């Protein structure tokens, strides 16, 4: 029976959830003639008690962390230290499973070659455990026409509370108290988190070299919204949502994040209430709708574990589309911005 040694970077909500899930799958691993061992966990403070993780495998030392391991799981987030450890692993031929959409979006030029070689697995980076990346890869036989998604639950929560009459500042404070906001809240309310995810989606579907800076330049958040604006839209039979969109315009693919008005019966409104949702338009397949939990430790860890199974089975990771798609013959109708 082969032993697979896993190095885990990050022991926060997702990391702890993964540590809890791994023992539950030991029988399945044995069915693959594998013994899966959590060998090392890299954290900022190795002296901090972390229930379920033996102290002997905790470390804060980056140097030597990847020695004698077979797979790196990165769920720490950020683009600096996490990026350096991920690149070190890939350069050493160690496959990487990551939930880090910011790293994928912002340091893609360094990661792209490894992704194209199938060494990078990142289903958990967009919509957590809802498997949209694998699904979108299976749609390469179609001409992508448009993609629209609600991919940040924090903004959805704040907007929902504002629809109930809360002022933006009050709804923002509630989201923070519930632990929904990133350490840098602008990543959520400024639309940056959604833009990171949209960039990942775009490279899988229409353009493997889409620059992050291009998406960032067309990203706006929700801080300008007021309860009155939302009430007026509702009176018109519409709902305001922060939507990440990918579409053709003037001979180029455009990726943008902004608040838009949607009909109350739109799939992003009905299926995206309290969840993440994605609507794909393609030819000849037509419209496909994906919806599910887009956050949470257990949900995200389930996608990480699914990617680990792919590593164990020798299945390549998430491959970007081989070349930029040609423009569709007709452009789709644009959503109304708010």
Please provide a brief summary of the model:
Helices cover 37% and strands 23% of the residues. It has 338 residues and is α/β, with parallel strands linked by helices.
Notes on the protein architecture:
The chain is 37% helix and 23% strand. It has 338 residues and is an alpha/beta fold. The protein has 2 domains: 2-130 and 296-313, Rossmann fold (3-Layer(aba) Sandwich), CATH 3.40.50.720; 132-293 and 326-337, Dihydrodipicolinate Reductase, domain 2. The strands form 2 sheets. Strands 3-2-1-4-5-6 form a 6-stranded parallel sheet, sandwiched between helices. The protein has a 6-stranded antiparallel sheet with strand order 11-10-7-8-9-12. Helix 1 (13-24) crosses helix 14 (297-313) and helix 7 (153-163) packs across helix 8. The relative contact order is 0.16.
Q: What is the total domain count? A: 2
β-strand percent reads: 15-25%
Alpha carbon gap, first and last residue: 58 Å
Strand-pairing-aware structural class: alpha/beta
What's the SSE pattern?
EHHEEEHEHHEHEHHHHHHEEHEEHE
CATH class category name of the largest domain: Alpha Beta
Largest sheet: 6 strands, parallel
| Radius of gyration over C-alpha positions, nearest whole angstrom | 20 Å
Number of strands: 12
* Shape, principal axes of CA atoms: globular
CATH architecture of the largest domain: 2-Layer Sandwich
Helix content: 25-40%
Strand order of the largest sheet: 3-2-1-4-5-6
Low-confidence stretches: none
CATH topology of the largest domain: Dihydrodipicolinate Reductase, domain 2
CATH superfamily of the largest domain: Dihydrodipicolinate Reductase, domain 2
Oligomer: single chain
Mean pLDDT across the residues is 95
Number of H- or I-type helical stretches: 14
